[in-house]
Specification:
The protein has 184 residues and is an all-alpha fold. The protein has a domain at 11-136: Orthogonal Bundle (Multiheme cytochrome fold). It contains eight helices and no strands. The protein is 61% helix and 0% strand. It comes from Thermochromatium tepidum ATCC 43061. Heme 4 binds at residues 136, 165, 168-169. Heme 2 binds at residues 73, 76-77, 174.
Length: 184
């Protein structure tokens, strides 16, 4: 092989490598941008069926409180670590699908499936040991002496038993749905 051909192959290889790096960076940036946009309160509440959830959320301490710290939908429903975050985003695409297909596109249809949907979220939260809750609330950081006697007793017992937050705190932000009547 002559020198000009060898130089040409090296240049093409470097160009291909450079394009792959730039393409990879663009891909990662695009994915990150998509995640950031879909983690906003505005995006989460843009569907008609989420308006009920949004109204409930606005009544909670996670929306408005004396410290001014606000936890948004993504803070509670989207993990911080990249792997679980990507899985959650992939799984959440089904919600968009059901909105578009008309399965949950009205408040009435959403309410009819609410018990089922809430249980999916609760099971996911239990499986992750309430990971998203613990990004703000952690037993190790709780000043139990500042809590009511009941809360102090319950949190202490829950910590000793290794309980997860969602075991006791269903319905903190969203109204806890009633279990459907299974009798025909």
């Amino acid at each position: 092989m002559s020198k000009p051909e060898s130089t040409s192959v090296k240049r093409i290889s470097l160009l291909a490598l450079g394009l792959a790096v730039v393409g990879g960076i663009a891909f990662v940036w695009t994915i990150n941008f998509g995640i950031e946009i879909t983690n906003t309160l505005e995006f989460c509440t843009s569907c008609h069926t989420m308006q009920t959830n949004f109204e409930e959320y606005k009544e909670s301490r996670h929306y408005k409180n004396n410290s001014g710290v606000q936890a948004t939908c993504a803070d509670c429903h989207v993990p911080k670590p990249l792997g679980p975050k990507l899985v959650t985003k992939f799984v959440a695409a089904k919600d968009v699908y059901h909105e578009v297909m008309g399965t949950i596109d009205t408040p009435e249809k959403f309410e009819a499936r609410r018990w089922y949907l809430a249980n999916l979220v609760w099971k996911r939260m239990e499986a992750s040991d309430s990971r998203e809750c613990r990004s703000c609330h952690d037993y190790a950081n709780m000043d139990l002496s500042e809590q009511s006697r009941s809360a102090r007793s319950r949190h202490s017992a829950a910590q000793d038993k290794g309980q997860t937050c969602i075991e006791c705190h269903k319905g903190v932000v969203h109204h806890e749905p009633s279990e459907p009547d299974t009798n025909p």
